[in-house]
Fold these 4 entries.
Entry 1:
Amino acid sequence: MRAIWKGAVSFGLVSVPVKLYSATESHDVSFRQVHASDGGRIKYQRVCAIDGEEVAYADIAKGYETEDGEMVILTDDDLADLPSTSSREIAVEKFVPTEQIDPMLFEKSYYLEPEKTGAKPYALLRQALLDADRMAVVTVALRQRTSVAVLRVRSTEAGDVIVMQTMMWPDEIRTPDFSIEAGEVKDSEVKMATMLVDTLAGDFDATEFEDDYAGAVEALVKAKIEGGEIKRTPTSTKSSGEVVDLLAALQRSVKAAQSARGESTADDDDDDADEEPTAKKAAAANTPATKSTAKKTANKSTSKKDGTTKAPAKKATAKKTAAKKTTAKKAPAKRTAAKKAS
């Protein structure tokens, strides 16, 4: 895990330097909106609801909508004047009984790890919370906003650790606007319900439960991939899983380096020879062949097994040979030596 915040827990005259880690992560399954025919991602434009024109990101401001639908535009200067804090202190306000904290208030959980110099006071605070069976109500500044949170002790495989849980403000908890009228409940029904509770009674073990929906989605996606039901789009960045040919990768690297220096590659030479314009081919055909070329041509025209002699090379062959020779002369000496070495 990576620490997302550093500060100190202070209670009385004691200060405990700590690091803050996110204690939870979401494994919720999310889907992309795509074009069904080719799998392309669906993009959304920022369009003004009044004039219908697309709005550039630089022209977007923050607006606060009132209850009657009026819009108040807030500038960066307005927001800069709002109260904010960057304190690095987790200040303990009071220690309260655990049962007084409604779990509905809990929002986000964090692990607190002590710095090396704060290990002893950390252990002291942890033991005090356990012995008193209380939670510490604290105030802390996260993301430049002051929040109310509690400190409590949680037992883990690594040992007892102090957990900080931020809380929602009281006015953020909604009050139900409905009433329940169940009528008269008979004693026999209550007795039977109590028996059912006793039958299903047990200890809570979180490992007994699993997200079967996420597992089913993963199995479905895996089956489609194995069946070849995938859309390879230009924006796909993940590897196809094929084994990379090291030699081919090195050859591509050499070609890229040569291209960066303005040099022609071996493939470029072959392409130039095979696809040279007609005028250049004709000019190359009129160039006298050297002795080495003549010897090579003579070797190729060796008599066949039946004693007949192979016909002399056609002009097209001579043109291609001459073209290759002309191209070879243009290549730098260092690259030619490298070819021979390979």
Note: The first strand starts at residue 5 and ends at 11.
Entry 2:
Amino acid sequence: MEQVLDIYKRPYDKNFPIVCMDESPKQMIKETRVPLPMKPGSEMKIDFEYERCGVANVFIASEPLKGKRFVEVTERRTKIDWAMFIKKIADEWYKKAEKIILVMDNLSTHKASALYEAFEPEEAKRIWDRFEFVYTPKHGSWLNMAEIELNVLMGQCLNRRIGNMTIMTEEVKAWENYRNNKKAIINWQFTTQDARVKLKRLYPTIID
């Protein structure tokens, strides 16, 4: 925990950007009846029945100090999907960085082995060397600022019924552009000193 909090104290450095990464499933839901539009004196009416259309996965990479985020919707959330997303971070979005500090949780797919399953060894090692991977502790996913950004995405964009990946991808891309144009940053306030006071119970007791 303290390792993550120390990283969040670092000043912005374009050569060593701090990027937080997270992912979440999203149920695709299709309307079975056309909603009645809003009109004066009456809200939009949506039928309670719906049709389930499978589950998509949403990857997000957020750079809190710069106010940038990149989102991708995929059909699955396998090791290969994660590896492809990591490659985009390295080669498209942060290709000029010397080393990318990537904060993420300890999900079983977030491992070096995933890159070796997706790419030839030389390519996997090249991508791996572009990163310094920093894992949040078990039960400490709240330390990942990408989780905050993902909650904003769910609340502002994906809080309604969307029936297919094409529409979901278009909506997510529009939200991403909107947030990036605003340069919306995350003002992280929780420090190591705060943790030692508020989470004192998590620290071992030293007996003199």
Note: Strands lie at 18-31, 50-63, 68-74, 100-104, 131-135.
Entry 3:
Amino acid sequence: MRGTRAVPAGRSVRTAGAEGDVEVRRSSRRRRTVTAYRESGRTVVLIPAAFSPAEEQRWVAQMVAKLQTREERRRRSLGGDDELMARARALSAAHLDGVPQPASVRWVDNQNRRWGSCTPADRTIRLSSRLRAMPAYVVDYVLVHELAHLVEPSHDAHFWSLVARYPRAERARGFLEGVELGAASSGAPTGTDADDLVD
């Protein structure tokens, strides 16, 4: 990978290339495993400290490609706005007795501080396109959260009882809280709670 260089164990280096910002973190505790994930708009690759610059370059390119393939597969499975509407209707039927019926559900690119939002007056739901890189159960949780707002606009006890009907609600909230903690530790702007970021 162009521009990468070996760094001592416990240190990291950030580079920019065709695959975007990549941060390589070396660890003396790692022996053979390599891990990669997205964090605050960049790719983080964890490698053993003993890797040579050539091994680092090869593994970084491999892991970035693997992440891109996985994300593209996830994007295809989540589909566009029509598929998102169908998913919302199915979740409404499965967990909310089919009561909330949105007029529209769509992906948006301008929600950087919220995962989703809902306007009960016109029954529209918008999901941040940042969710496309997350597991499907997390997207479903945000959809259920927004659908529940079509029944109960506030975050009262009734609202949370509706959201709790989604079996993976707690797990998804934990996932989003982890994402937010990671963003906060990197200095990226964030809300104070995963629930504050879903309206």
Note: The two ends are 41 Å apart (CA to CA).
Entry 4:
Amino acid sequence: MTRFLRQAGVLVHTLVGFHALIGLMLLSNSALAETPLPKIHVPEGKECIRPEHEIIRNHMKYILHERDETMHEGIRNEPESLANCINCHVTPDENGEIAGIESDEHFCNACHQYAAVQIDCFQCHADRPQKYIKRGKQISSLKQQLNNTLTARDASGEGVNQ
């Protein structure tokens, strides 16, 4: 009798678990249908170097491969560089503003927030195309300050090996 009750208990537990699993699948499918996918900026008139579904799935492999080739072997393949992705996909909005990586509107940030993946590329790399980075007077004044300091040292003999 105990054996029969044990088998019946296992059967009931399995059926309850199965129905719970079906319920979760139905719930997750309806929740998934309501979850908006991130918007990906596709530049007009340009075709990406690889199909979109392949880039979405494998872009990290490409970035790591490119990093290894560049950093360890000195090979620079421009079409697959991070800078080229940024130059193509990060463009000004209707007001002429370019979203930085901290913005929800940035090309990379949209998907990375959706997938809950932290981006650390932009600790070193520019998050916007080079042609849109404003290098105002601060850079030139720093260069001028450096030149002034070096000129003053040369004139005083400071820093010159004797």
Note: The CA atoms of residues 17 and 23 lie 10 Å apart.
